[in-house]
Amino acid sequence: MGHTVEIRNDSGSQLFTCVSGERLLYAGLSGGADLPYGCATGTCGNCRATLLSGEVETLWKEAPGSRALKKEGEILLCQSTPLRNCVLEARAGDSRHQRDTPMTHQASVSSVARDEDGLAWVVLKLQRPMRFLAGQFVLVSIPGVEGFRAYSPAHDGADVVELALLVREKPGGGVSPLLCGQQQVGTQVTVFGPLGTAHVHPAQDHDMAVLVGGSGAGVALSLLDWAKATGHLSRHRLDVVCGLRTLRSQQVIERLVEAAKSASENLRVVVALSDEPADADLPQAIPGLTYERGFVHELASELLSTEEWKKRAVFVAGPPPMVEASMRMLLLRAKLSPTKIRYDSFS
C-alpha cells in the first residue's frame, strides 16, 4: 500500500502516492507532480525539498548532492523514500513546455557495439513505446547495482521501441562497465524517463548550436536525427561542435559523417579531437564536416561570432569540465543570455 505525499510550493499543493522503497522524485513525476530536479540521480542537489511532516528513509547517504542540503529537514527527493504519509515543501519544477510524463519501462539489452576509445553504442529494447523530445535523457538501472545512471538517447524520440544510448565505460563504475559488455546482451534492465528540460522546442526553435563532448555526443545525434526527420535543416542552420578524444571514437564519427552527407548546406559539424597525436593525419573534410584538434569551447568560440550566438538556442552536454568551460565561454565571452543556453545539471 502506498503512502500519500503532499508537495507544497508557491503555486499551491499537489498529492501523489509513493510506496516504501520507491524514490519520491520518480513517484511524483510519474504522478504528474511539478517537481524540481537536475540529474535525478543524487549528484546535483537540485531536487532538494523540506520535510514538514512524516518520515523518510535516505537511500544513498553519501550522495554528492547532499552538499546542497543546508537546513534542518532538507532531503533529496531522488534519494528519499517515504516510511509513512509525508508533507513536503519544494520549489516548482520547470513546467513551461509540454513533455511526456516520465514512466518506468522494462527493457532488455539488445546489442552492444564498442569502439577503441571507451565509448559504446548500447541498444535497449523496450517492452512498450516511449516518446521523448530530442535532448532529453533517461535513467537506467541494472539488477544487482544500486541506483540509476543517466544516459541520453542518440536519436529522435517519436514513439520508439528501441533506445540507442552512447555510454562511456568508466573504470570502476557500477553500471557502465556492465552496459558496455557483450555478455550483458539479453539482460533485463529498468528504464525511467523521459527526463530533462534541455530539449528542443519544436514550435519555437530556429537556428541552433550544439556543443557536446564524450557520451554527451548522444545529444547532438538526437538533435541531428530530429532535424532530419522534421525537415528543420531546410529552413534553419545547425552548427555542431562535437568533442572526442581521438579518431578511434568511430561509433560517433560514423554517424556524424552520415548526418553530414545526407543534410543540406545549413548543417556544419566540427569534430574536435582533444587527444589525437600531433603527428597523425586528420581525415579529409567533407561538405558539412571538418576535423580539428582542440577543445570544444575553444573551437566553438572561433566558429561563431557573438551576434550569431545571441540569435540561437545553444545546447551543451558532456563531461562536467567541458560543460563548465563551454558555459564560461558562452556567458562571459559570447555574452549569451542564460535563457538561450540549454543544459541539464549533472554535477
From TrEMBL:
<keyword id="KW-0411">Iron-sulfur</keyword>
<dbReference type="InterPro" id="IPR036010">
    <property type="entry name" value="2Fe-2S_ferredoxin-like_sf"/>
</dbReference>
<protein>
    <recommendedName>
        <fullName>Oxidoreductase</fullName>
    </recommendedName>
</protein>
<dbReference type="InterPro" id="IPR008333">
    <property type="entry name" value="Cbr1-like_FAD-bd_dom"/>
</dbReference>
<keyword id="KW-0001">2Fe-2S</keyword>
<keyword id="KW-0479">Metal-binding</keyword>
<dbReference type="InterPro" id="IPR039261">
    <property type="entry name" value="FNR_nucleotide-bd"/>
</dbReference>
<dbReference type="InterPro" id="IPR001041">
    <property type="entry name" value="2Fe-2S_ferredoxin-type"/>
</dbReference>
<dbReference type="InterPro" id="IPR012675">
    <property type="entry name" value="Beta-grasp_dom_sf"/>
</dbReference>
<dbReference type="InterPro" id="IPR050415">
    <property type="entry name" value="MRET"/>
</dbReference>
<dbReference type="InterPro" id="IPR017927">
    <property type="entry name" value="FAD-bd_FR_type"/>
</dbReference>
<feature type="domain" description="FAD-binding FR-type">
    <location>
        <begin position="102"/>
        <end position="201"/>
    </location>
</feature>
<feature type="domain" description="2Fe-2S ferredoxin-type">
    <location>
        <begin position="3"/>
        <end position="94"/>
    </location>
</feature>
<dbReference type="InterPro" id="IPR006058">
    <property type="entry name" value="2Fe2S_fd_BS"/>
</dbReference>
<dbReference type="GO" id="GO:0016491">
    <property type="term" value="F:oxidoreductase activity"/>
</dbReference>
<dbReference type="InterPro" id="IPR017938">
    <property type="entry name" value="Riboflavin_synthase-like_b-brl"/>
</dbReference>
<keyword id="KW-0408">Iron</keyword>
<dbReference type="Pfam" id="PF00111">
    <property type="entry name" value="Fer2"/>
</dbReference>
<dbReference type="Pfam" id="PF00970">
    <property type="entry name" value="FAD_binding_6"/>
</dbReference>
<dbReference type="GO" id="GO:0051537">
    <property type="term" value="F:2 iron, 2 sulfur cluster binding"/>
</dbReference>
